[in-house]
Amino acid sequence: CSTGFVLLFSSKDINRITIPTKSAMIDDVSYQIVDEDEVKEFLSGYLK
Q1: Per-residue pLDDT for 11 more than 70?
Q2: 9-38 CB burial, b ≥16 within 10 A, e <16
Q3: What pLDDT does residue 8 have?
Q4: Which pairs from 22-30 meet CB under 8 Å and 24+ separation?
Q5: Rounded to whole angstroms, how far apart are CA atoms 33 and 48?
Q6: Are 23 and 15 in contact (CB under 8 A)?
Q7: Which H helix or E strand runs over 41?
Q8: Tell me: the pLDDT tens digits for 22-38?
Q9: CA-CA distances (angstroms) from residue 27 to 11, 16, 21, 30?
Q10: pTM
Q11: Which helix (H) or strand (E) holds 44?
Q12: Residue 12: φ, ψ to 5°
């Protein structure tokens, strides 16, 4: 398991949030892959 980062902006501040990702190599390029539904669920508490 790896981590990815997302920045959430509001009128008052910026939050850096670590999201769970999986590493993958595709054509010798390293990627961080996430499941869209998992990320939506993970971020739902931050976006209220």
Answers
A1: no
A2: eeeeeeeeeeeebeeeeeeeeeeeebeeee
A3: 63
A4: none
A5: 25
A6: no
A7: helix 36-44
A8: 889 999 999 888 888 98
A9: 41, 30, 19, 8
A10: 0.50
A11: helix 36-44
A12: -110, -30
Q: Is the Cβ–Cβ distance between 42 and 31 less than 8 Å?
A: no
Question: What is the number of domains present in the chain?
Answer: 1
- Sequence length of the chain is 48
3-state DSSP call for residue 1? coil
Q: Contact 2/32 with Cβ under 8 angstroms?
A: yes
Residue range(s) defining the domain that contains residue 27? 2-44
Chain Cα centroid distance, residue 27:
23
**Tokens, residue 5:** 């980062």
pLDDT of residue 25: 92
Tokens representing 33?
Answer: 């892959």
**Tokens (6 digits) for 13:** 């501040």
